[in-house]
Design a protein that fits this description.
Layout lengths: L1 E5 L8 H11 L2 E4 H5 L5 H4 L13 E4 L2 E4 L1 H8 L10 H25 L12 H29 L11 H16 L1 H7 L4 H11 L2 H7 L22
Parallel strand pairs: 1-2
Antiparallel strand pairs: 1-3, 3-4
Length: about 230
């Protein structure tokens, strides 16, 4: 099966969660916008293809099927890529983890764009300073504390007791936060032994390591979800 991933060019963003799963599994896929440009996304967003049109990328095309939303895409990819346990109950748990990651990612984005995604950061800097301060002091410890406790409850090494797409997403979450909030993350480090070990373990997986060393892996930057603005890091 060959997959077609649609996401904006130039930013890792939410598309990176899907890309990591495809790369880790060694799946054949085309990063369509990198070949055809962002214009390739527009017909889908305009509803010119069969089925419910996606509101925004990322979305995945498999044959005639189009799947949108990161958690939904990974829920679909998990079984054929062997990135989720076979048990229906465990697959529901994987989806629950991923939806929680999605909630955290949305809040991370809003820490630097608290008013509107359509405005430049500089147009909402004052509000972002206040939002980021609350995020660093309150929400960041709550989110990471939850993931750390849940990981311990699952045995400490993997989110689901075995390698899965959730582990890959937790890796991306940790690396993104380390880029965006390095000082705040250093303060949390002692509380996150299992999460940090999991991220390091994922990074050392053969296919992931090759991907991270390749030009296909886009660096974090100030256009995506995880953005580093020194003033927001306290």
């Amino acid at each position: 099966m060959r997959y077609q991933l649609y996401y904006w060019t130039g930013i890792p963003g939410r598309g990176e969660f899907v890309r990591l799963a495809l790369e880790d599994a060694g799946a054949e896929y085309t990063d369509v916008a990198r070949v055809e440009g962002d214009r390739a996304l527009q017909p889908f967003l305009d509803g010119k293809h069969a089925g419910a049109p996606p509101f925004a990328p990322p979305f995945l095309k498999v044959g005639r099927t189009v799947i949108a939303q990161v958690a939904n895409i990974l829920h679909y990819l998990g079984p054929p890529l062997a990135l989720v346990p076979k048990s229906p109950a465990r697959r529901r748990q994987a989806l629950q983890w991923q939806l929680t990651v999605a909630d955290a990612v949305a809040e991370i984005h809003d820490s630097h764009h608290p008013i509107a995604g359509s405005l430049y950061y500089e147009e909402q800097r004052k509000e972002a300073l206040r939002r980021a301060d609350i995020f660093r002091r309150q929400r960041l410890p709550q989110w990471l504390g939850h993931f750390e406790r849940a990981l311990v409850a699952s045995g400490g090494r993997h989110a689901l007791g075995q390698h899965s797409y959730v582990d890959l997403s937790l890796f991306q979450l940790m690396r993104g936060l380390e880029y965006a909030y390095p000082l705040a993350m250093k303060k949390q480090a002692r509380r996150l032994g299992h999460l940090r070990a999991l991220a390091d373990q994922v990074q050392q997986r053969a296919n992931v390591a090759r991907y991270l060393a390749s030009p296909r892996r886009l660096p974090f930057n100030t256009k995506g979800i995880f953005r580093h603005y020194p003033e927001l890091d306290g």
